[in-house]
Each structure stands twice: as C-alpha cells, then as structure tokens.
Amino acid sequence: MNLLLLSNSTQYGRGYLEHALDTVTGFLPAGARLAFVPYALADHDAYTAKVRGALADAGIEVRGVHEGGDPLARLAASDAVFVGGGNSFRLLSALYRTGLREALRDAVRGGLPYMGASAGTNMAAPTLRTTNDMPIVQPPSFEALGLVPFQINPHYLDPDPRSTHKGETREERLTEFLEENDVPVLGLREGSWLRVADGRAAVGGERPARLFWRGAQPRELAVGSDVSELLTVAPEFDRRA
C-alpha cells in the first residue's frame, strides 16, 4: 500500500496543507485526479473548494466524492484519494452509509494512493478507539479501514507543565486504552506524518512522534525513524492487562 497519513492539515501560521505541500505533491501522481472525501465536515462543497484551491497550482484535479451523485464511481475513476479531517465519528458513519468504507479499503489495498489528515488518518487504523473527537453521531461500528494494524493518535499533545488543568493528559488516555487493548499507538504531533510504501513505514515532518506499547514506557521517535516493525503487529482488542 501507498499511504501518507498527516497528523493535521493546517499548521499554525500557515495555509491549508502548506506545511506539508511538497510532501503531498510528491506523493500524488503528476496531474492526478484526486478523489476528496469531505464527510468529516458538514459543508462538503466548501471543504472540497478549500482542498481544490490548495492543490490547484500543483496541477491536481480535485473531485469531491459527493459531486456527481455516486461516491463509488467517483472513487473508481480517480488516481488517488484524500480523506480530510474533521469529526471522526461523522466521517466513519458516512463511509458506512455510502459504502465507501469497503470500497476504500479494497481500492487502497489494491494500490490506490491514500492520503489522510487528522480524522482521515484515524480511518487508516483498525478502530476509532484512540481518536480525540466527541462522538457527535454513532456509526454502526468503531471499526475503520484497517490499512495499518496499529492505532494512530493524530494531534498528539504533550502535557503543559505550566497548566493548572487537572483533566487527563493525552498520555494518560492512551495508557488507559492500552490497559484494555494490546495494540501499539503512534502519537503524531502536529506537523508530523507517517509515510508507508513498499512494505516500509517512516515518521516524517517537522516534529518527532511518540510510540506507546503496552507494558512499556513511551518512546520518542525522531523524524526519519523507521517504524516498519509496526506493520507486522497483530492487534488484540478488548484484552485487559
């Protein structure tokens, strides 16, 4: 499979996809017909227009899967797919409703380049169990696309030592997940991404990632780190420590 999984699509002080534009345009085929999946936000037309504007200078033809009436046909006629960020529960619910969950999984496993950002990156994992979103809708299942066998936590946030907030930190929440499930979690800080190609996986972007394993201390992964070992894990859910 050929995957580009971004933690975020907008970086502070920069335009949409600007922080990763060279990587994005290098990932997409030249002159690609890009199927964009906008279902994580309510206004599909405006969301598609934003992506179209960001990639126009690169010669990428962006087509919203909601445009034309048949999302599956739009996907089938594309050279690559981009699943945008927003609310992960709303997105997954729409993928089930439209039949895109199965179609996306099969197409990407068959070689279609897949780019995700935030919620779209969550979709590449086995389940939604490590997302940061509020469940504003209830999808038929938490089961996502399972393009990789491990979990990802986009927008991974380090605790602020100056904060007086007493709620759980992101690390504490992921530790709770690992108490109930035996599957590694890759925390992608904003500005970072995961690249998967030719059976290899590597951390990219501007900031290191953080890797969580059950029964082990979290590990920092520098930009450029090879994490191909994660592609061979066998996830086990609902297995208490």
What does this structure look like?
With 241 residues, this protein is α/β, with parallel strands linked by helices. It is built from 7 helices and 11 strands. A 7-stranded mixed beta sheet has the order 3-2-4-5-1-8-9. A hairpin with a 6-residue loop joins strand 10 and strand 11. The relative contact order is 0.16.
Q: What CATH architecture of the domain at 3-149 and 189-207 do you see?
A: 3-Layer(aba) Sandwich
The percentage of residues in β strands lies in 15-25%
Structural class, please? alpha/beta
**Average of per-residue pLDDT values:** 95
Strand and helix order? EHEHEHEHHEHEHEEEEE
- The number of helices is 7
Characterize the largest beta sheet: strand count, sense, and whether it forms a barrel.
7 strands, mixed
The CATH class of the domain at 3-149 and 189-207 is Alpha Beta
CA radius of gyration is 17 Å
Helix percent reads 25-40%
The separation of the N and C termini measures: 32 Å
Q: Report the CATH topology name of the domain at 3-149 and 189-207.
A: Rossmann fold
Strand order of the largest sheet: 3-2-4-5-1-8-9
Principal-axis shape: globular
Question: What is the CATH superfamily label of the domain at 3-149 and 189-207?
Answer: Class I glutamine amidotransferase (GATase) domain
Low-confidence stretches: none
